[in-house]
Structure formats: C-alpha cells, structure tokens
Design goal:
Length: 405
C-alpha cells in the first residue's frame, strides 16, 4: 500500500521515528494539567496509571511482532522499552545493562519527565517516580514475561539534589514468582479496533537496511540502520501507540468524570498535543510557511496515522477531509477520529497555525464519500497560540533537541 512516507529517504524517516516517539510521550503531558485541575493530584495519579497500564502491554507486544524480536528474557524487555513512547530516546535517556537472561538493570542518565515535575515539588515527584512507576513498570515488563519485576535501587526525590543518574532499577525474572495477570484496563483495550488492526503489510524489502531487531541490545538504537519499509512500519506502529494511549486515557476519564467533562478534557489533550507536535515537526523537517509545507505537515502528522485507523486526507488545494475508518466508533469512545467526526476543529487549527498563524480550518458540507470537510483559509488576523498548546509546552520535551550519537 502507498503511504505519506513513501517519498521520504531513510535519514528523514529516522528523524521522524524519534519525533514520533517523543511526541507520543508528550500526549500524556498535554492532558495531565487539565486532569489535575479537575481531579487533584490523586485523581491525576490514578488516571496516569490506567493510561499507561492499559496501553503499554498492548503496543509492547505489537512492536515485538513488527521488528521480529521474540523471547521472554531481560534483553527482550529492554528492547521493547526502547520502542515505547513512554521511553523516547535521549529525552528519557535509559541506559541498559543485561547481566544474564534473567537479570539486568537500567538507569536514567537524563529524565525529561523528572525535569517536568521536579520544579512542582516533592509530592509530584513521589507521585510520578513511586506511585505511577511501580505498577506501570511491572505491567510493561509483564507483557514480555509475567514473572519479571522491576525494583528501584534508588530513585527521586534526588538525594543529594541533582543526583545523576536520576534513578537506578533492577529487572529480575524469578521463575518461582507469581505470574502477574494482565491489567483489567488492558484487557478492555485489547478488544479495541486499535489493538487488533493489522499493519503488517510492507512494501518491497529489497532495499538496504535491517528489517528486524534481532541480535544484541543496542543502548543507542540507530534507526538510520533500518530499511525504508521497516522505518515506515515503525512510524505507523508508533502513531498507533498514541491512539492506544488515548483510548486507555479516555476509558479512565469516563470512570471518574461525567461525559461532558471527559469530552472537554479529551479535546484539550488532542488540541495541545496536535499543536506541539506540529511545531516540532515543522522545525525537524525544515518546513516553511507556504502551502506546500502546510500540506506536508498534515500528511505526516502522527495524529493522522495509521490511515487504516484514522483516515484524514489533505488535498493540494488545502482541503482536509475525514473518511469512515476504524477509529470512529472504536471502544471505549472519544478517540481522535470520533472527536473530528463530531466536528471538533480546534486540533486542526492548532496544527495549521504551527505553519501559519493566520490559518483557520473552516467546516463546509462534505461531498459524497467524506464524513467531514474543512477548508484551510487565511485570515487577515494572526491567531494567538491556543492555551492548550501553551500548557503542553510547559514540558521540557516541547523544546527538546536530539543530539547525534
């Protein structure tokens, strides 16, 4: 099948892989300030636990299939973590050490998530580094081996202040340990269309580059080494991780808020991450402010991939259209496709205004074959940055720069 990535070279696709992983991580950051405002610190904690425990076990197994690395040992656990939006490279600078098949450890040489919460005070640090990580780390490990456990040697609050590495964890597989069961919220997400959609069809694999992640663990995985079809598959799977995270997040919201409030927070989250991702991609790809750059940004934005799940198209004459797709009607509701189908234009405005702040997405009657259509028009006035985008940019990840390694 053809994709929006087909005309890009391997170097550009590798840049996009890193950007997709980091922007997938920031989906959480786009939401939590609004969740905190509604539910307080404990409610935010519980939603975050649900969010990651619901999605991570699902996409960890999907990524193992995509890059053909199988097994139930510590090395396989670490490989899965490297391709998880919860651990984007460099921003969450995991350093892994495999001792043997059943023992390993990792430390964080730099923790962007800690940089985000440390200025907020110790209660926020303890909430993230203790209450959230304890169950979610084990859920991620258990997706590979249900007898695996992750335990801290040390972790924040940092003592002494500024201690590096920020934390150190051991990973142990104990054959006599009780098997961890699949989290209840993950069981529900596993039945979603996002979880079961098949992205395995690849284009011709005769080009250069590796097609799997077999062999030894690499602490700094070089995405440039992968073949073009493999990189495209990776991008589609990473984008799907974001949709799975959104499903588990909204599932948790609906258990704690009324429907109208849950929808409000879901729209705020979508708008914030849509805009910040658009700004990062505009910079990473060296896009300008012309119409061609606007079209390219919309075609490559991870919110609109994979097309099998969310079918958003953009035409050269600046028309955005939404078509029937698996994301509409997907359980548990409030998916990004469903928000667009209901007429939400805020996330689209946040994207196009990253290229040109005069741009607006104006709805019009859709032609046959489309569910929704928006025309991108240029106003005489420059739009201020949306508050949801500004809130998301509180995270240090919004301005993070990758280094060449």
């Amino acid at each position: 099948m053809t994709t929006a990535f087909d005309d890009l070279d391997r170097a550009t696709l590798a840049v996009l892989v890193r950007e997709y992983l980091l922007c997938g991580h920031l989906i959480d950051r786009a939401a939590m300030p609004f969740v905190f405002a509604s539910l307080g610190l404990e409610g935010m904690r519980d939603v975050a636990i649900d969010e990651w425990m619901g999605a991570s076990p699902i996409y960890t197994q999907r990524m193992r299939r995509a890059l053909d690395f199988d097994g139930d040992d510590v090395e396989t656990i670490f490989k899965g973590m490297q391709l998880d939006i919860g651990a984007p490279p460099q921003f969450m600078d995991f350093r892994y050490r495999v001792i043997d098949a059943k023992h390993g450890e990792f430390e964080l040489a730099h923790c962007g998530a800690l940089m985000d919460v440390e200025p907020m005070g110790e209660p926020f640090v303890v909430t993230m580094c203790h209450h959230i990580e304890d169950p979610t780390f084990d859920a991620t490990a258990a997706a590979t081996n249900p007898r695996a456990r992750m335990r801290p040697v040390h972790r924040p609050p940092r003592a002494p202040a500024g201690r590096l590495p920020a934390c150190l964890w051991t990973v142990t597989i104990d054959d006599d340990a009780e098997s961890l069961s699949e989290p209840e919220i993950a069981k529900g997400i596993a039945r979603s269309r996002a979880a079961t959609i098949d992205l395995s069809s690849r284009s011709d694999e005769t080009g250069e580059g590796r097609t799997d992640y077999q062999g030894p663990l690499e602490n700094d995985l070089r995405f440039e080494a992968f073949s073009k079809p493999t990189l495209i598959w990776l991008l589609r799977e990473i984008a799907l991780q974001g949709h799975l995270l959104t499903l588990s997040f909204t599932d948790s919201l609906k258990a704690r808020m009324d429907e109208d409030k849950a929808r409000e927070v879901a729209v705020q989250r979508f708008t914030g991450i849509a805009g910040v991702t658009a700004q990062r991609l505009t910079s990473a790809l060296g896009l300008g402010s012309d119409h061609a750059s606007l079209v390219k940004l919309l075609e490559l934005h991870p919110a609109f991939h994979p097309r099998e799940y969310i079918d958003v198209r953009v035409s050269p004459d600046l028309e955005i259209s939404l078509h029937d797709c698996a994301g509409i009607g997907d359980r548990p509701g409030l998916s990004w496709a469903e928000l667009l189908a209901s007429g939400e234009a805020g996330p689209l405005d946040a994207i196009v205004q990253a290229v040109d702040p005069r741009a607006r997405c104006i709805p019009r009657e859709p032609p046959s074959g489309a569910l929704r259509v928006w025309d991108i028009e240029m106003s005489s006035k420059t739009a201020a940055e949306k508050p949801e985008v500004s809130v998301t940019k509180i995270s240090t990840g919004a301005a993070f720069s990758f280094e060449r390694r």
